[in-house]
């Protein structure tokens, strides 16, 4: 289990501009509250499948991992939550975040059907190993965790 401090985005996952705006607001607030350090782990939580859910209602949480939520009061749209332990299949996407859809296509259309795993009805997690400020776009690494039974 781990705790995240997050800001939610609701809408189409292809609306990268709005998602980036959500991340910017989260980082500005977290910096003001002194929640960021060189060791901060950045995580995205994908709550809905845009193939099933109406895309305007898809939910995405931009978050950072925190030790616990006891010291932090939520304000406005910023929240904390506990991510429960779960079994995942882990994948690596290398390159621009905006092209991760290609990796997801491979996961859903080929890999999961080949190994015959069953999805768990839990959010997908994305851990952003490096960032665009310090890394060339082609070298960005995203760890994708697909919940399985």
Structure description:
It is a single chain. With 149 residues, the chain is an alpha+beta fold. 22% of the residues lie in helices and 32% in strands. It has 2 helices and 7 strands, in the order βαββββαββ. A 7-stranded antiparallel beta sheet has the order 4-1-3-2-6-7-5, covered by helices on one side. The radius of gyration is 15 Å and the shape is globular. The model has no long low-confidence stretch (mean pLDDT 89).
Structural descriptors:
alpha+beta, 149 residues, single chain, seven-stranded antiparallel sheet, 22% helix
How would the blueprint of this fold be written?
Blueprint: E1 2-10, H1 16-32, E2 42-46, E3 59-66, E4 78-83, E5 88-94, H2 100-115, E6 124-128, E7 141-147
Antiparallel strand pairs: 1-3, 1-4, 2-3, 2-6, 5-7, 6-7
The value of Rg in angstroms is 15 Å
- How would the global form be characterised? globular
Described by its quaternary structure, the protein is: single chain
Query: Counting H and I runs of at least 4 residues, what is the number of helices?
Result: 2
Strand content: 25-35%
Order of helices and strands: EHEEEEHEE
- Mean pLDDT equals 89
- What ranges have pLDDT less than 50 throughout 5 or more consecutive residues? none
Proportion in helices = 10-25%
Count of DSSP strands: 7
Distance between the termini: 17 Å
């Amino acid at each position: 289990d781990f705790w995240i401090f997050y800001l939610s985005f609701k809408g189409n996952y292809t609306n990268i501009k709005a998602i980036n705006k959500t991340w910017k607001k989260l980082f500005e607030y977290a910096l003001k509250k002194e929640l960021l350090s060189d060791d901060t782990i950045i995580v995205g939580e994908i709550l809905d499948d845009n193939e099933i859910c109406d895309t305007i209602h898809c939910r995405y949480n931009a978050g950072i991992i925190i030790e616990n939520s006891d010291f932090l009061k939520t304000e406005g749209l910023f929240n904390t939550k506990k991510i429960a332990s779960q079994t995942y299949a882990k994948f690596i996407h290398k390159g621009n975040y905006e092209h991760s859809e290609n990796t997801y296509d491979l996961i859903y259309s080929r890999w999961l059907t080949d190994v015959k795993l069953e999805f768990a009805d839990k959010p997908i997690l994305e851990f952003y190993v490096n960032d665009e400020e310090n890394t060339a776009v082609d070298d960005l690494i995203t760890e994708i965790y697909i919940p399985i039974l």
